[in-house]
Each structure stands twice: as structure tokens, then as C-alpha cells.
Specification:
CATH topology: Arc Repressor Mutant, subunit A
Protein name: Transcriptional regulator
InterPro entries: HTH_HxlR, WH-like_DNA-bd_sf, WH_DNA-bd_sf
Largest sheet: 3 strands, antiparallel
CATH class: Mainly Alpha
Radius of gyration: 20 Å
CATH architecture: Orthogonal Bundle
Distance between the termini: 74 Å
Keywords: DNA-binding, Transcription, Transcription regulation
Order of helices and strands: HHEHHEEH
GO molecular function: DNA binding
Number of strands: 3
Organism: Actinokineospora bangkokensis
């Protein structure tokens, strides 16, 4: 006799707490705010791009890391991967409706970082000078 399938726990916003190491949202957060995730989302906010265009726009990312990042963001529903039936195959990446607000929020962070860069550099230099004087 077959047993009934296990009940799936209801998913509600109250069940998600990113400070809990077992929270399923933590992996999504890690994909979005990873070293490459934030940059990929920023590039895709500008529009649809092919793999090579994304790689060129995100300086320093390897093909392997970009492929892994895009795959994780696609799985999380942030990125849409569309294969065009042409020869050679043409693959486009774009933001989904779910991914767009995340990318827009991240661009706010970019702007803050760019504006604060001179102050951050001054703070780093002061820190390094204090550290060297010890």
C-alpha cells in the first residue's frame, strides 16, 4: 500500500526570516547580492542582452561564474533566458517582472557607492595611516 504524499508546508511571508540560517530566502539573497549577481542585474536593467554582452559589461567575470550566476538568477525567477531558434543558437537574457524591482533597488546602491567613493577612499587612507602608526 502506498502512503499519502507528505504535506507541503504552507509558505507565508511570516515563515521567512533571512537571519535564520535555514530560511529558504537566504539562498535567494545570496544570489542577488553576490559579487556577480548585483552587477548582472544592473546590466540587465538596461535591457535584453546576450551572454557575451553581459560578460563584456561585467568586467572580470569568468564564463563559468557568469553562467552559474545567470542560472541561479534564472532559477530564482529574476532572469528570463530565451533561446531563439536560429543557427547558431541565439540566447537572450532579460529581467523578469520579479527581478526588475530588485535590479532597480540595486542601482540605488550603485549610486550611493559611486557618490561616496571619495569619502570611502579618504576613510580607508586614514585607517591605513592609523594602522601603520601603531
Amino acid at each position: 500500500m502506498r502512503s499519502a504524499p507528505a504535506a507541503v508546508a504552507e509558505v507565508t511571508p511570516e515563515r521567512f526570516n533571512l537571519f535564520d540560517p535555514n530560511c529558504p530566502g537566504r539562498a535567494v539573497m545570496e544570489h542577488i547580492v553576490s559579487r556577480w549577481g548585483v552587477l548582472v542585474l544592473g546590466v540587465l536593467l538596461r535591457g535584453t542582452h546576450r551572454f557575451g554582452e553581459i560578460r563584456a559589461a561585467v568586467g572580470g567575470v569568468s564564463e563559468k561564474m557568469l553562467a552559474q550566476t545567470l542560472q541561479a538568477l534564472e532559477r530564482d525567477g529574476m532572469v528570463l533566458r530565451e533561446v531563439r531558434p536560429v543557427i547558431p543558437p541565439h540566447v537572450d537574457y532579460s529581467l523578469t517582472d520579479l527581478g526588475r524591482p530588485f535590479a532597480e533597488t540595486i542601482t540605488t546602491l550603485y549610486t550611493m557607492i559611486e557618490r561616496a567613493a571619495p569619502d570611502v577612499q579618504a576613510a580607508q587612507q586614514a585607517y591605513d595611516e592609523r594602522k601603520a602608526a601603531r
